Amino acid sequence: MPSLAEIEKNLSTQGYKLTKNRRILLQGLLELAEWATAQELFEYVAARNKKVNFSTIYRNLDMLTEIGFLCRVDRNNDIHYYALNHEEGHHHHLICKSCSKVLPLDFCPLTSLAPSDLQNFSDIECKFAVYGYCQDCQSQHLSERQTTERSHIIKPSRQLQIDPRRDKNCPK
Fold first, then answer.
1. Using CA atoms, how far apart are residues 13 and 124, in angstroms rounded to an integer?
2. Which residues are within 8 A (CB) of 74 and not within 5 positions of it... i.e. 6 or more apart?
3. Per-residue pLDDT at 68
4. 147-170: per-residue pLDDT in tens?
5. Whole-number Å distance between alpha carbons of 165 and 170
6. Are 61 and 45 in contact (CB under 8 A)?
7. At what angle do helices 38-46 and 20-32 cross, to 10 degrees?
8. Strand (E) or helix (H) holding 127
9. Which pTM was predicted?
10. Contact at 8 Å (CB) between 93 and 130?
11. What domain range is 138 assigned to?
C-alpha cells in the first residue's frame, strides 16, 4: 500500500497539488483500507474539516479516479465505492452480490475483440465487472435459493370432484 508521501509525490509529478481536503481524503482511503462510498469519505473528511462540502469530495474522487489513483466500482445498490488502486495497469473486478467483496480480475474482454468489432472507435476505454457469489457466500446463497424454489412449488391439493348433475358442461 502506498504511503501518503508516495501519493503526494505521484500527484505532484502529474501536476496536481495535495490540497488540505485531498490530503484528508487520501488519509481516509489509507486508514479505511477497504472500499468506501463518497458519503463515508465525506463524513471522514468533514469530521476533520468542517468547511468541506460534498461536491468538493465528489470532484476529488472523480479526478483521482480519472488519473488512476483510485478504483471505482458499483456494488449491488448502484452506489459508487472507491479504494486506492493497488493494481499495476488495467484491471477489472469481481464483485460478490451478497457480501459486496471486491476482488481484482486481470481478464479484459476488450483484448479479445478484433479492430473491426470496435467499428473505428478510437481512445477506447473498458469498464468491466463480474457479479456473482464469492466462495464464502455460495453455500448461504444456495440454501436461500433452494428455500425460495420450494416455496414456489404448488402442492397438489384434494382432487376437485365435479358432480355431472350440476355441471352443464359435463357430458351426461
1. 25
2. 80, 81, 129
3. 84
4. 666 555 555 444 445 455 554 544
5. 8
6. no
7. 120
8. none
9. 0.67
10. yes
11. 88-148
**Which band of pLDDT confidence, cut at 50, 70 and 90, is reported for residue 28?**
very high
Residue 172 falls within a domain, yes or no?
no
Q: Is 126 helix (H, G, I), strand (E, B) or coil?
A: coil
What is each CA distance from 62 to 103, 128, 139, 143, 165, in whole angstroms?
A: 21, 18, 37, 39, 77
Query: What cell was used for 106?
Result: 486481470
**101/76 same-domain check:** no
Mark which of 33, 54, 86 sits at the end of a domain. 86
Cell of 100: 459486496
Same domain? 63 vs 126: no
**CATH code assigned at 98:** 3.30.1490.190
Q: Is the pLDDT of residue 121 over 70?
A: yes
Distance of CA 124 to the CA centre of its chain: 21
Residue 123 has pLDDT above 70, yes or no: yes
